[in-house]
Structure formats: structure tokens, C-alpha cells
């Protein structure tokens, strides 16, 4: 009966598509009590993806009767005659969270599929509860199954996602199987070429959350951008009882207790006035305990309240002009090796930034793990976060745009309550074209629609004027869309003579704050020579000594994030014996040793005090 068979296939496809996208991410899961699945997972390297496709290259999970080759079934032989050509429980194990490249020598360069399996019990399993499975991040594509059933697929290597597992679990002997594929792709985000290592795997925490039938899915509390005595926000409930439900928002320290009633969709907006707020800032990283309670759920968070705005070429934090003494950072713990993922890793990286004298960090070139933004909240470090719309993205592909926008949405959703985060950046060094301008302009509109409280930027590029190479310009229509004009400039390293930097100047007639989002030079730590010998610490130091005072002459300069805090792994950096697969522009080596330029930048920041009139209280 072809008709019925087609109907069943279409229905199945519909279910697949519905499941394909993860649920809205659970807000503030970080402070919810969950069941951690971190630890050793079994893994199978599947170069030909035969655990996913049958020999006709059809996905097993599109089949009504997937053969024994479907790895997500975690099959065992029925008897001594039965053929099952894989066995997770006989397979080796790997740490989750953690990339496979730095854990398994044979996987150092591997790009492809690795299957992961984790068996688990649910203590006090309660079938009346709802169960979510949340990943802090998986690079790059994850196909997720529980007890042999497909939960869905997620693409994007640096943002959290979750799937609902309600009704698919039991008290004992559950198993999760994840197909992780880190192959790069022309139409992916990022695309084929990047200057960082393509670490694959389940690179961040994995947690199960047991939730009441109607729970608090999302919320925001932010200081109103125009009135610093008003906290604005919203609550979103999820569940059958979400409509017309009373939710209480309280900030005990301020004696605030606000009751709101949700609308038919479980949503409620609110304003709370307070005349006694202590505003969050680097000098006063004040966080308030915030409690959100509904009939069946209760969450607590720690939130700082501050305003970030621009006025002409100044950036104003709580009405005061601020200069962003920053540094760029990649997400690596170079001493252990591989992707950073833990609070301890965050303490190392932000500790070095603090030691440098920074009040600002650019978390390049993708969303870092949540420990970084939460620790920055506690330490009083301002943060620039960005999505990996990097270099030559497939601007004309609608799926590529949807992927980029989804990663932006997941980032903003995760960190919108983090006072330290002041800038969302939507791209880095992207080549000019009409398609690229449209693509990026749409992303800016999306960011503003989700969060009007922060500044929007992107790392653009500059170049020398034809008739006078000592005059640099930024000719990019996209600059009009941005609150802060940021650009990378490498005069003296990629072109230009380091001894001529003092004669360079920028001709930028935009009345907007300017951040130099990258400059730097490579140096092998411990290699000493005269200061015109490339790759020596002295050369890197000379470039900093020449560049810093030259940048300081840019009238609109409001911040710098030199490239970069620490040497980092990159397949593009194979100069033996200097690079050996490392980008050497770090101020610190992969062994944690500081180079001469670290101390030059530290001195510059320590001497950089805004003059009194500049510090003046510029009330907008
Ligand atoms: C570019 C790019 C970085 C890269 C750096 C470099 O500016 O944004 O990702 O690592 O240059 O060449 O070192």
C-alpha cells in the first residue's frame, strides 16, 4: 500500500523535523541543581559514519527497522549467533567535558565522527516530572539519542542546547548516545578556514534537569537603559499551567518582592523601581541574589545592574566615561592542552588578564564557556562576546544565516543577565560584499531585537590610503550599523615597517567610540635578539612600544584588545622551529611564561588614567 507507506514516511519526517531543533534553552541552568553526566563516556571513532548510515548511505534513524549497525541503539547480541558489529561497553572511554584532540593522541588532527555513550540511572525517578538534557556545547554537530530514541540535532560548536526527554526515561539503565561530528564545511559557521584548532567533542558540561510540569524556562532582569532607578524584565513559563499563573520576583537585599501574572502564553513583563541600587562596575562588581518563584518552580540567580551606553565617541558605564583596557582571549587551557571548559580554567585566563591590568576582555572568536562570563561578573571584568562569523562565510546561503542567527540567539539567551557582558559582536574580518552587508545587518537587527541594553560591534578591517600609506582608513558601510567601531590593525607585522608606526595615523570621521580589536606580533618565548629580528621577544615588544602611543592619538579611541593573551594552537602556523602549530602572538607562552611585551602593555595600562575632566560625570 504505497499511499500508507508514504504517509507514514512523511509523518515520520515531520516528527524528525519537529524534533530536529532543540527546545528553548533553560535559563540559568548553571545555578539549578541537576544530575551531572560529566565523567568517562565510552567512545567509538566512526570515520565512515557507518553507525549513522546504512550501506546505501541512508540514515539508520530514518528507517522503521534500523539494522544492528545503528550505533544509537547501543545494541547487544541477542544470542551467540547474533551479529552486532560494535560494542560501546567494550570501547575505550574519554573525559566529558573535553575535546578529543588533546585527550587522545591518535585524534589530535581528527576531523570526523566520534560516537559517545553514557549509561545512567535517575535516582528517585518521578514520571510526573519533566526531564531535560542540556549540553554546554558540542563541537560541531550533535545528533542526540536517549534509550534508542532520537531527541534531535544541534549545530554550532560553542553555545548551549537542551532536549526534553520526558516519557523516554526509567529509573535504571538509561543510556544516552551522541554522534559528534566536527568536520568543517563551506556553508558552516565558522566556515572552512579559521586561525584556531578545530577541537571536536562534547567540550562542555552535560547535565540532566528534573523539572516540575510547569517550570520557569526563561527570565531577564536588567537596569532600564534610560532610567537607572528602574529594573525591567520578563518571565517565561513552560508547561500546561503556564497561563494566568502568578510568579514572584524578589531581591531580598533591596526589600523587593514583585508579583506578576503571566498571559495566555505564560509570559509576563515587569518593571521594578528601586532608589537604592548599588550599580555594578569593575570597581564595584556588586551582584544581587534574585529569586524567581512560580507555583511549582523556584530558581535563584546572582545579577548585577548597570547601564552601558555611548555618547559621541565615549563609552559610558553608569554615566561615567570608561576606557576599555582589554586583551583578546581564545578558549584554551594551554598548560593542560585543549579547550578550556571549567571554572579553574576561567580563573587562570581571567587571572592573567587581571594581572595585566585589564578591565575588559574580548572572548574571541566564538562564545566561551559560561564560567568565563559568570566569573567576569564576580571579578568586575567587562566582556565582549562574539559568534564565529569569521572570514569567508557563505553569505548567500539561507541555512548559513539561520545557523549564525541561532548561535547569536543562544549566546544572548545564555548571557543576557550577565552585567559584565557589554558588547555583542557579530563578525570578524569579513570581506566586503552586498550579501555580507545584508547578512550582518540582519544579525545586528536580531541582536537588538533580543537585547536593546548592550552595545553592538564587529571586528572590521582598515587599510592604507592609496595616495598616502601613512594614513589608514576604515571603508566599510557596515560601520553605520554599529554602536562601536572596532577594527583589527596589524601595521608592522602584516605589512608596514615597525619603525614607521610612529608616523601612522587613522582618518576616521565617525563620531563613535573606537576599539582596536586586534594588533600584535609573533614571538617565540625565550628567543632573544635585536628588536628588528622578527619572532624575537624584542621585536614583539618594540611593536607594542611603537603601537600603543600611536593608537592613543586616535581621538575616538575608547578601548584596545591586543591580539592575544596566550599563544594558541592553529593548523595554519607551521613554521618550524618557531611556531610548530602555535600562533605565537600571545603575551604568554603555552608553558605559562610571560614575554617582554606583557610587561610593556601592563605598564601602559597602569599609566593610563583618564584625565579628571574626561572622568567627569557625563550624564547623558
Ligand atoms: C586576524 C584574526 C585572528 C588571527 C590573527 C593572526 O586578525 O582575527 O583570528 O589569529 O589575525 O593572524 O594572528
What does this structure look like?
The chain has 3 domains: 20-211, Jelly Rolls (Sandwich); 225-305, Immunoglobulin-like (Sandwich), CATH 2.60.40.10; 310-615, Glycosidases (TIM Barrel), CATH 3.20.20. Helices cover 18% and strands 27% of the residues. Helix 2 (343-356) crosses helix 3 (370-379), helix 4 (398-415) packs parallel to helix 5 and helix 6 (537-551) packs parallel to helix 7 (596-607). By secondary structure, the protein is an alpha/beta fold. It is built from 8 helices and 34 strands. The chain starts with a helix and ends in a 5-residue tail after the last helix. It has a 9-stranded parallel beta sheet with strand order 21-32-31-29-26-25-24-23-22. Residues 11-20 and 616-620 have low confidence and may be disordered. Alpha-D-glucopyranuronic acid binds at residues 195, 365, 428-429, 488, 518, 563, 583, 585.
Instruction: Give the radius of gyration.
Output: 26 Å
Kindly, what is the distance between the CA atoms of the first and last residues, rounded to a whole number of angstroms?
Answer: 72 Å
- What is the number of E strands? 34
- CATH fold type of the largest domain: TIM Barrel
Q: Tally the structural domains.
A: 3
Instruction: Find the CATH superfamily of the largest domain.
Output: Glycosidases
Structural class: alpha/beta
Query: Average pLDDT across residues?
Result: 95
Main sheet attributes: strand count, strand direction, barrel closure: 9 strands, parallel
